[in-house]
Amino acid sequence: MSNTRQDTLEIVLAGLMRRYQERVPDVPNILNAMISEGIIAKADDIENDHIAFRTMGVPNLGINSLEKVFLHYGYEKRDVFNFAQKKVTAFWYAPPSPQYPRIFISQLRVDELSPEVSRIIHSYTDTVTTDPVDALNLDDGYAADAFLHQPLWRTPTLKDYLALASESEFASWVIYNRYYLNHYTVSVHNLPTGYNTIEQFNAFVESKGFKLNDSGGKIKISGDGKLVQSSTVAQMVDAEFIGEQGETVLHRISGSYVEFAERKLLDEYAGVETATRQHRRDGFEAANADKIFESTYSNQTKKHEEEHDTM
To answer: Which positions ≥6 away from 301 have C-beta within 8 Å?
Structure first.
């Protein structure tokens, strides 16, 4: 990848992380707790394992559109995943060099939803009549960054949001948040001894009062045992919707969250003392991701809202 394209990618990634940290207090709070504990000296000491986006699988949008941004910067498309119950398809993308995060992009298979929910979604997304990425100058990092944070369709009504949430919480999350960064991921295995396993890091995170997603258990382990993940529960945010009379109404919805990943050494590198990405388990695991999706679902957020309310 050319230096120019590398610089552009860094502008895009920095923009994503800046807005994400502003909107998700758990991010700076966890980083500050790690600094106070002496785990890291500064935020940049953390390796970002991957970042994730959610999209709608509709014409001119979805994976086929959004992936063009990252393919342009040298990312390579890898495995496909099918989440049958959630009606979601996803791919992951390998970075052009190891200092950059992997990318995970998922999309809702809109036309598999009920006719009414599908109709509601299309009433918003059909206003996008051409692929917006095709109109972007992807060599302008600031333009690409701005695009990833701009509304793609009108502000949803609260009635429509709730209708979507009743059938697909993935759908309701995307209809409001659009391409907003869904999560970023701390590479736990690169932390100092005593914090470099998911078990140890979870204990640290919970000791500081952060809530973990317990769907499928707080620790999600791949079939080969080499990818171990956990995540916080998404924080609730006050979102502005359109009311029945066209007025602005507030409703609390789930925002984004923080994920933690431990990638164990591949068997052939079991004796390696100074491990790099090439020595560790790569890729993703559908069963793990399926449960981590639920970090924004009400089965997690309501539980912790109720705990907060009783404190």
So the answer is: 233, 234, 236, 254
Residue 84 burial (C-beta neighbours within 10 Å; 0-12, 13-18, 19+): exposed
The three-class DSSP label of residue 280 is: strand
- Give me 175's structure tokens: 């209809």
The pLDDT value recorded for residue 23 is 87
Of 129, 13, 115, the C-alpha closest to 73 is 13
What is the domain extent for residue 286? 3-309
What is the helix (H) or strand (E) element at residue 115, kind and residue range?
Answer: helix 115-125
- 227, 221 Cβ separation under 8 angstroms: yes
Amino acid at 107: Q
Q: Does residue 309 surpass a pLDDT of 50?
A: no
State which amino acid sits at residue 155. T
Report the alpha-carbon distance of residue 238 to residue 251 in Å, rounded.
Answer: 6
Residue with tokens 């695009």: 147
Q: What is the CA radius of gyration of the chain?
A: 19
State the pLDDT confidence band at 94, using cuts at 50, 70 and 90: very high
pTM > 0.85: yes or no: yes
Note the pLDDT of residue 302.
80
- Residue 39 sits in a domain whose CATH number is 3.10.180.50
- Measured over the CA atoms of residue 178, residue 89, residue 81 and residue 202, the dihedral's sign is positive
* The pLDDT of residue 1 is above 80: no
